[in-house]
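Quick question about two entries, pasted in order.
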Amino acid sequence: MAQSRRAIVIGGGIGGLTAAVALHQSGWRVTVLERAASLEPVGAGISLAPNSLRALDVIGLGDEIRDLAAWQGDGGLRTPSGSWLARTPADAVAERFGGPLVLLHRATLVNSLTAQLPPGTVRTGSAATVVDPGGADRPARVSTPDGESQADLVVAADGIHSAVRRKLFPEHPGPVYSGFTTWRVAIPVPGVEFASHETWGRGSLWGTHPLKDGRVYAYAAAVVPAGGRAPDDEKAELLRRFGDWHDPIPAVIAAARPGDVLRHDVHHLAEPLPAYHRGRVALLGDAAHAMPPTLGQGGNQAIEDAIVLAHHCDDLAAYTAARLPRTTAIARQAVRTARVNLTRNRALIAVRNTAIAALAQAAPLFLLRGFDSVAGWRPPQRPYASGRTPAGNR
């Protein structure tokens, strides 16, 4: 019986937890093994687009997350001096893609997902490795701190440096440096009003966005050699790089404490995997297709993976067929986008900015067209759209 089938999820991040919830709701006995001591996520914010919100509809969380949307009015793209290259109204985005863009703290999403799981499902401080991926005639075997366990399905959601991926595909070269590092903060910034924006400079960018809880989520990126760190602290580094950019950027930096600033080099899988499964083990999220954050789709694609995997849990080849082409295309698009918005070439920057401004003036929504195939995705199973999603966009 389906109720007796057992799944082990390796990794308690957003993708792993979404898969755990979807499988649990399908009648699986699920155990989530997270090597960290707690589920407190590394990172600050995550942007959820309509594609992943539709995926969350399948497990009943879509509208709960939509209620956290904070972007109102115009947002858009700016230059470091403050000039607007393009403005994008939030309602136009929602109308085009059938739903809002929701920016929230990762911890909020993690808490919403874990609340859907039975007590004891998630075991922290539990590193796990795949001993045998299993096959049609045998279960998969997983080594845990409590000994070896068997499972009808193993979901490997163990991140960009996935040990499971190395076990399944030892010939794959693994992640490569994307050429830039990122900083992130999620902090209160009292008395500061601003329109949600991303600002592109020379080999660097900054984004500032409101969260529903009143905090500000800001992120920055810069083209630098891998492995670098500030000689003093990362707040000071932000001040050096972005302190003379337009408001409210200086105020956000001033409001941050050094310990609030997270810095991480960005890596991605430049070479796609041949498959997202082997035996009874399926890879999802960064373990399968880590990509630069320039489209804001890393977490979104992990959520999509999880819902599609639950749908195809009896046929992992179908899961690979459904996910590998889409995620490969999006990952490549994210790499191309990084080359454009983080270019250091002054002539290319001038051409880029002039073209964006002209397009935004002539056809304000034209710049959204490149996101249509990403945000327009629908999950393979119902319910795949909230009651709030316009019928024409379902």
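Here is the second entry:
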Amino acid sequence: MKKDSIKTGISFGCALAMVISYVKWHSILWAIIHGIFSWAYVVYFMLRGY
């Protein structure tokens, strides 16, 4: 159960980072790069204030 939650959280973080990146930069390459960093980019984006 815990393993599934971690896997789901990582997948969600990756998808969220990619969507935020694509909306902000309109670049598939940047979306892929930010997807690799996943939650780190999401936290960075939140701290920078959009």
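Reply: The two ends are 34 Å apart (CA to CA). The helical segments are 2-25, 28-37, 39-48. Hope that helps.
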